[in-house]
Recover the amino acids of this structure.
């Protein structure tokens, strides 16, 4: 779920308060994009799904959330390859994967 080396490096670079602030920002910004990606899926707005997935792929990778980053890359690749059923399937996996990522981040930061 996490690349602990990346997460540890981020936490080492900043004070505990700043690390928590970065963690909170990642969590809130990611959480804030899950509903819009699902709404875009309902509207079959694949351009919007790809835009959000690209943004979250990068931010997740930067924060060491490797499974999240991989999932968003799969969404991007499925859209590029016009695999709409795969896009829907993967989008429905985002929330449970995000929950697992949250748990791992909370364990790491405590």
């Amino acid at each position: 779920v996490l690349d602990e080396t990346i997460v540890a490096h981020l936490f080492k670079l900043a004070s505990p308060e700043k690390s928590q602030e970065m963690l909170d920002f990642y969590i809130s910004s990611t959480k804030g994009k899950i509903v819009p990606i699902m709404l875009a899926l309902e509207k079959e707005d694949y351009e919007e799904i790809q835009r959000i997935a690209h943004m979250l792929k990068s931010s997740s990778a930067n924060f060491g959330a490797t499974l999240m980053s991989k999932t968003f890359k799969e969404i991007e690749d499925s859209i590029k390859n016009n695999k709409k059923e795969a896009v829907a399937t993967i989008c429905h996996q985002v929330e449970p994967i995000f929950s697992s990522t949250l748990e791992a981040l909370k364990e790491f930061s405590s």
The mean pLDDT is 95.
